[in-house]
Design goal:
Radius of gyration: 16 Å
Number of domains: 1
Largest sheet: 8 strands, antiparallel
Distance between the termini: 31 Å
Mean pLDDT: 94
Structural class: alpha+beta
CATH class: Alpha Beta
Shape: globular
Strand content: 25-35%
CATH superfamily: Methylpurine-DNA glycosylase (MPG)
Low-confidence stretches: 1-7
CATH topology: 3-methyladenine DNA Glycosylase, Chain A
Length: about 210
């Protein structure tokens, strides 16, 4: 396994709840370039968020479309809570609840650019190639030790899972259809940092 040096970027400061837009599509775009941090027992890990997908109110592809259930309850919590679910029975996926209490909607964090704790993330993923470390929603959660234990966590209450300011300004932001869905599949609700090697999905969707 080949280790990778830590990025030499300043440590981010925590964002306050009101530093981000409380509307799903606007939030999905605003999160590009921001920092996701997990202060886990084995060490601190962080990434620059480089790819998101919005699942707004009334979206047939969103988990909230069927109404609130025991499984998706975190999507209906107030703005800024983690919704963690098992995708296709294989990988944990991390979302941010994006509207007011009782309104189900969220933003999926699809990919990140590693900043801190790279060696920890590589051990967790069992991979030696940096470019493959967090380039997808399941990879991101496995690398950063995010699973069902963090479902319902508040990103803004001082806990171990939090959102930070950008350590480097976001580049040009591209928009495309979302990946791996069949309902409302043509809606342009995926956002990504153009040219970032950690963006996931087919290249034709990330020109």
């Amino acid at each position: 396994m080949t280790s990778a040096p830590e990025h030499t970027l300043a440590a981010p400061r925590r964002l306050g709840r009101d530093a981000l837009p409380h509307e799903t599509v606007a939030l999905a775009r605003a999160l590009i370039g921001k920092t996701l941090v997990h202060e886990a027992p084995e060490g601190r890990m962080s990434v620059r968020i480089v790819e998101t997908e919005a699942y707004p109110v009334g979206d047939a592809a969103g988990h909230a479309f069927i109404g609130q259930t025991r499984r998706n309850a975190s999507l209906f919590r107030a703005f800024g809570h983690a919704y963690v679910y098992l995708g296709y029975g294989v990988s944990w996926l991390l979302n941010v609840s994006s509207e007011s209490h009782g309104v189900g909607a969220g933003v999926l964090l699809r990919a990140g650019e590693p900043i801190e704790g790279v060696d920890i993330m590589m051990r967790r993923r069992g991979r030696g190639r940096l470019a493959e470390l967090t380039s997808g929603p399941g990879k991101l959660c496995m690398a950063m030790d995010v699973d069902k234990r963090l479902d319902g966590a508040d990103f803004f209450d001082g806990g171990p899972l939090w959102l930070g300011e950008a350590v480097r300004p976001a580049g040009d932001i591209g928009v495309s259809v979302r990946i791996g869905i069949t309902k409302d599949a043509e809606r342009p609700l995926r956002f990504y940092e153009r040219g970032n090697p950690f963006v996931s999905g087919p290249r034709k969707l990330s020109p």
